[in-house]
Write a structure and sequence with these properties.
The chain has helices at about 20-35, 55-70, 125-130, 145-150, 165-170, 190-200, 210-220, and strands spanning about 10-15, 40-45, 50-55, 80-85, 95-100, 120, 135-140, 150, 180-185, 205-210, 225-230, 230, 240. It is of the alpha/beta class. The strands form four sheets. It has a five-stranded mixed β-sheet.
């Protein structure tokens, strides 16, 4: 009798933090991940870190401990947004640690989440917030992601990449008209950039879902959920549902951090 093979543990993480030495971090971080036999994608930039990786549960735990408490980042990731989920099999084909200009690309130097960012809203308070009649609920993800699932009543900006969000905002959003905006994305990182962008443009009240859709699906019971459909993720699991359970057909390895 053969025992069932244990599932992989998946870690999705990001933080906007000053990393002036990000180029020098690439080699030791890559070596550390390789030593733990982790696969996935990690982006490093002067503004922070963003990634999704998978491996044995104990290896993922060791990786998370290094980010939070190890000497490599020396306490600079003390506000790391970190979420765990499971996969029936390894959802990535390889390990990549890459250097980028931005950990999520918007192309607006004024959008700096380390200086100003929208108001975080916990998953348990999200339903009440988006039920307010004067609230514009905005999905900041790409159109193909929105097509797989979104929150009831949310506006789809119809963008192909997050870099187009600022054009959508300039064309469709007005600080004098849209007084309260609640936005969401997969894990929270796009909303931090988008909220910083809107605040820099003079929007008064901007909220975003802390931890993103993944945190909402993790903690909000399905019976109380206002989420409809599936949440696309950039790995071979394709999509996750309530409880962060795999809900999509497995497919070819994708870039784990594309736009996220």
């Amino acid at each position: 009798m053969t025992s069932e093979k244990p599932s992989c543990k998946v870690a999705a993480f990001y933080q906007f933090a000053a990393l002036p030495d990000y180029r020098e971090l690439r080699e030791p971080l890559g070596a550390f991940c390789a030593g733990l036999e982790l696969k996935g994608s990690v982006l490093l930039a002067g503004e922070g870190i963003n990634g999704t990786i998978a491996g044995a549960p104990e290896a993922i735990d060791a990786f998370a401990h290094e980010l939070l408490h190890g000497s490599m980042f020396a306490g600079r990731l003390n506000n790391l947004e970190l979420k765990f989920s499971a996969a029936a099999a390894m959802p990535f084909g390889r390990l990549r640690v890459r250097l980028k200009q931005e950990i999520v690309t918007l192309g607006d130097a004024a959008a700096d989440p380390t200086r100003q960012v929208g108001t975080y809203v916990d998953a348990g308070e999200w339903n009440a917030l988006i039920s307010a009649p004067d609230m514009l609920v905005l999905d900041t993800r790409n159109a193909f992601e929105v097509a797989m699932g979104t929150f009831e009543g949310a506006v789809d900006p119809g963008i192909r990449s997050f870099g187009q969000f600022k054009e959508f905002a300039a064309r469709e959003l007005d600080p004098a008209k849209h007084l309260r905006i609640a936005m969401f994305c997969t894990g929270g990182i796009r909303c931090e950039k988008a909220s910083a962008h809107l605040l820099a443009r003079g929007f008064a009240e901007v909220y975003h879902l802390k931890g993103g859709i993944l945190k909402y699906l993790e903690v909000v019971p399905e019976a109380q959920s206002r989420w409809r459909g599936q949440c696309f993720v950039f790995d071979e699991r394709v999509a996750l549902g309530h409880g962060l359970k795999e809900s999509g057909p497995r497919q070819r390895d994708k870039d784990a951090t594309r736009d996220e």
